[in-house]
Structures are given as C-alpha cells and as structure tokens.
Design goal:
The complex is a heterodimer. By secondary structure, chain A is mainly alpha-helical. Chain A has one domain. In chain A, about 65% of the residues lie in helices and about 0% in strands. By secondary structure, chain B is an alpha/beta fold. Helix content of chain B is about 35%, strand content about 20%. Chain B contains nine helices and nine strands. In chain B, the strands form two sheets. In chain B, strands 5-6-7-3-8-9 form a six-stranded mixed sheet, with helices on both faces. In chain B, helix 6 links the parallel strand 6 and strand 7. In chain B, helix 3 crosses helix 4 and helix 3 runs parallel beside helix 5. Chain B is globular, with a radius of gyration of 21 Å. Classes of the chains: A mainly alpha, B alpha/beta. At the A-B interface, helix 1, strand 1, helix 3 and helix 6 of A face strand 1, strand 2, helix 2, strand 4 and helix 3 of B.
Chain lengths: ~300, ~290
Amino acid sequence: MSQVLHTPPPTQAPADDDLAALAARHGLSVSGARPTLPEYVGQLWARRHFISAFATAKLTAQYSQAKLGQVWQVMNPLLNAAVYYFIFGVLLNTKHNVPDYVPFLVTGVFIWTFTQSSIMAGTRAISGNLGLVRALHFPRAALPISFALQQLQQLLFSMAALVVILLAFGVPVAASWLLAVPALVLQFTFNAGVSMIVARMGAKTPDIAQLMPFLLRTWMYVSGVMWSIDKITKGDDLPHLVTLLLQLNPAAVYIDLMRFALIDSFHAHQLPPHVWAAATGWALLAGVGGFIYFWKAEETYGRG
Amino acid sequence: MAEHSEKVPTVVADGVDIVYRVNGTGAGRGSATAALNRILRRKQAEQAAGVRRVHAVKNVSFTAYRGEAIGLIGTNGSGKSTLLKAVAGLLPVENGHIYTDGQPSLLGVNAALMNDLTGERNVYLGGLAMGMSREQVKERYQDIVDFSGINEKGDFITLPMRTYSSGMAARLRFSIAAAKDHDVLLIDEALATGDRSFQKRSEARIRELRQHAGTVFLVSHNNKSIRDTCERVLWLERGELRMDGPTEDVMKEYEAFTGDKNDRTDKKPAPKKPAAKAPTTQPDAPKVPLPS
C-alpha cells in the first residue's frame, strides 16, 4: 500500500460527552468490562458443562491418532513408572531404605505428574489458546480449570494402573484407600489455583513457559518423589528451616498423603506434622488466591 | 445521517483506538539486548526496546441502532476484524469506550472445535463453548446436523473432523455457530463457505438471525453480500473511519477507491442486486483476494 490517503472522516463526529451520555441514557454497558467477583463465579458455574466437556475432549483428542487409542491413557503412566523404577530402583538402588519401594515410587511419580502437568498446561492455558480467547465469550478461568481437570481425569486412569501395581506387589486393600478421595480433591484445588496464577503470568509473559520446566524439575527433586522425606528430616544434621520447608512443601504433602492412604507399610509417623492442615491450607491459599489473582486481569486476556 | 433520537442504540463506539504490541520484531539493536532492555525498563522505553506498536484502529466513533444491519468494508489490514473483536469485548481498547446493549457475540466457534474429535462431539463442544446449556445443544443437535448437510452423503458426523473436506468442515462450523440466537451479532467473513446451495441456506439463516438479533455487523469482501444484507456501511481504511452512510453511497465510493468502477459500470450500470450473478463472477475478486 503506497498511496497516501487523506481521510478526514466525513461523519460529523459528535462530542465525546454526547456518545457517553447517549449510552448511559439507554443503559448500555462498557463492552468487555471485568465482572464483579460474585458475577464471575456465577458465569463460571454456568459454564461448568463446557469446562468438563473441554477437558474430556482434550483428553480424548490426545491419543485419537494412535493405533492403540485410549489404551495409552494407562500405558503412558505405567511406562513412566517403569523408567523411574529402572533408574532409581535398579541403577541407583535407592530402594533399600524404603519398604514396598515400587508402590512408593509409582505413587510419588503419578501424584507429582498431576501437579507438574497441571502447572505446565496452566502456563499455556491463555497464551496457547488465544484463538479461543479472541473468538468466544466465557470466563477465562474456565481454561486453566479445564486443563487442571483434564490432568485429574488423566490421573484417574493412572490410579487404575496404580491399583493394579499395588495389588501385584502384595499391598492389601484397606479402608484407608478412601482417604485418597479427599487428598485428591485438595490437590486438585491446589493445582487449579497454581494453574490460574501461572496462566495470568504466562498470558502477560509467554517466556514463563520456557522457564517452567526447570523450576518444576527442581521442585520435583526436593519433593521426595523417589526418596522418603522422613528419612532425611529424621536426622539432626539439617537446619530447622530446611526441615520445615521440606515438610511443608505442598507437593511433598500431597504425595505423602496419598502414600499414607494407599500403602500399608507407609505409617503415620512418616507423614510431615499437621499434614491435613497443611494440605487444606495450601489448597485454600492457592485455590482462592489464584482465582482472585486471575480474575483481576480478566479483561486483559487476549491482547496481542 | 439524520438525528436518530427516538431509535434505540445497541452499540456505541466513542473515539476508539486499538493498538497491538508485537514483541520480537527485532526493531531494536540486536534482538537479545533489545529483549533485555524490554524486561529491565518496562514502561519507559517500549519503543527503544523493539516492541512495535501497531495502531490498528484510530479514533473511530459510531452508533448502531436496533434492527440495523451494518456492513464493514475496507481493504485488507484496514482494521475491520479488529474493530469487530473490540465491539465483542474480546480485545481491549487503548483509548475511548465501546458501550453495548447485552453481550455482542462473534459468529465463530472454529477455535473451540478439535479436529481429532468426531463431528458429533464437536457440535456439543461448540454449543457449550458458545454458552448454550446441555439441553439446548441436545435440542438443536439434529437441526445443526441437518443444516450442515454433513450426513447427506453418508454417516460422516460420527467421523473425526480431520477426515472432512475443507468445505464440509466449514459448513459444520457455520452450522454450529449459527445455532444460537444473539442480541448483537458480529459476522466476520462467514458467508463465503460451502457450495452454492449451502451459501443460499446460510444467507437465509443470517436473515433469520437478524430478525432475532438487535443488530448485525457483517465484515465481507464480497460486495454483493454486503448489498444483499446491509442497509448501512462503515468503511474503514488504515484504521480510520473513512465513510459511514447508506449502503449504496458508501459502496459507490469504495468501488471507485478499489478500482472496481470500470468493471462494474461495464457489467451493471445500476447496481441493484442482480440475483443471477453468482459470487464467482464478482469483478472485485482479483482485487481483494483473501478474507482478512
């Protein structure tokens, strides 16, 4: 385009006050303004079916091109567990310190993967779905929540595989398995909250998605996925602060809760102190805080 | 334009500016240093740090009234789609305000659909994404499938959408998008999909939507469909509102501007919607090749 356009708009543009007053007189509202928090919660609730349908659709679409199809939902976590067992159980021989090492490790890997992939998906929830954000109206929190829900569904498949592994290694079925349900609910709330926080950050600065794998890997190695935290914290050689941080680490809390629920040789004294309080506290803090933090920037999502 | 004091406005745009910021255009000296600059000195030195500002819409004001169908025209990259997205509240405005009655919706669910899922599941997903309830989607499901004509040549709706031809996929997308009634409806180049019989059906559906909707905005490069559907036209050029008025007046100017005038006066001196002319004979086709 090289021609120069002289474009005085021929419409007699009325003064600003007139248009604003006209809009106010007819009760028009500002387009794309952020709703109040209660309204926002209401809108989100109204879209609950979309949230679950979107999560299920993403999950199903994942393996729809594979020959084995949905079998991969279970195969994937099993193979993952096998690799970790090979490295940490066979090559590095970590297992001598822990009874029932394979169930211990696999539980840790699955529960950790749930948090890890929820957060990873969260960083791209807005920045990776700009097309959707720019085409349709819905409370944007639906996206990170939906991705966290997808990971929860994925985890349920993994849990099915986990039950098989548990039984194969002679872990008895117990009433304490029911504790897995509240533990998962709390962990899901925590994950969704953190997803919303990183979703807002990732929407503003997409570079977060590049940084996140390194942060998450570091977090994994201090969360006792392959080793037992209580073995380290029992000794007196660690400063008190480090012990406290290791024990209050939300990932460690949720992992150990699940181990306590499922594995009979993982006893209550191996749990960090006040574990249910910590699990609930983290869930509330991340869930409520993350939601409000995300809502505060609602009207800015989708900017180029 | 006369005074519309007794008409009910549905969309009021008041001095709207829209600016895109684009990272990583390498406008600064060496893009890595530029990036670092950008992080360190956030607000002060956007320009110096290689962030390009694209001023897509400049000081546009207009008022749309209930029952109007308004065409948006302009050459590629003149800000039509951007303005539409801002009216829908999907893009934030830099300056000015856009006031709307109810929630304007963009006719488009493409982004919510997934190619790896069956057409059937996409109908549900798309409907839910547009804010329909489960029951509403169930109720309209058969209408949507019938309208799309996907099942005319066999049971295609239960196949994944990636197996559809591009025409079939476009038809299904339009059918899903058009299934909902809207207060203010914004249509961005939706009429150009599918074969001739589907186009006729979708034009009829648009007219129907117009009766339910308060106001319809239509972006198109197809001058015929603008003439067929709209009584008022806004002409955007380089982000500025160049003209706003009755369809014929604006279209005449626009065609002169894009250089269509000669072709058009040869073929039809009185541009009075010749229904026999299919879009393939549109004289403006080579001039304005692609939807923005």
